[in-house]
Amino acid sequence: MSASEAVRAAVSLAAAHGVACSDPVVLKQGSNLLVHLRPSPVVARIAARTALVRPSVSDHFARDLSVSSFLAGRGVPVVTPAAELPAGPHVSDGFVLSFSTYVSHDPTARLPRQDVLKLLPDLHAELRLYEGLLPTRGPLDDVDNVLTYLDGLGVPGLARFRKWRDDLLAGWSAHHNDVQPLHGDPHPGNLLITPSGPVWNDFEDTWRGPLAWDLACSADKEEAAQRTVEIYSGGAAPSDVEFHAETRSMFGTLWGVLMQWS
């Protein structure tokens, strides 16, 4: 299905709940499609490539809404579920979608990764209090699902990814330390820069895993793991950050193949 069909589905569903949209604007088109339902202060998140490789994509969307709602209640600056209509997740015209509040921000602005790392300890402290059910394999589930999907398409060259995955799995337990609820994908693009300060976004990938995973997501590739831990102010072993930076690299590279073939 096309992006235009997805937008129409979101506009139609919003209208059915009394939310008018005369000027939908696509904010982002990638793993998911994000659409500002102007003039309403509502953003539709519509599963795109995620729907291809996540059998439980509705659960991911529900988790995003649940975690962000919890954090907002704790006073954490986050993008909240929409109040103008049921936030979802919904299934409409074959699309999985949810609704969140539009936050005015500068889409071109990014915090330096070091500044993201400095914000993570406070976020992690609040996430530790979250008692909802969370996945425990996180990116490993995505890796398995993407490989299965690409294999079904006959994509060549997947053997190297399977070996890469198996090599990482062999060391997974040794680096599965300091486990807690994580953001899951706290790169600078998931912090919206608003006039009142940075606002956390996108808890779709939240899982219960090693703290080093989030640090690896926010670490500069040129930054030594030891320095990453120092900026964060402790919390994880540098060797764990190095390991999960490699996991993150494999995950990102494989997702790039998916983007090319879907």
Automatic annotation (TrEMBL):
InterPro entries: Aminoglycoside_PTrfase (IPR002575), Kinase-like_dom_sf (IPR011009). It comes from the Bacteria. This is Phosphotransferase. Residues 55-220 form the Aminoglycoside phosphotransferase domain. Pfam families: APH (PF01636). Gene3D superfamilies: 3.90.1200.10. It comes from Lentzea miocenica.
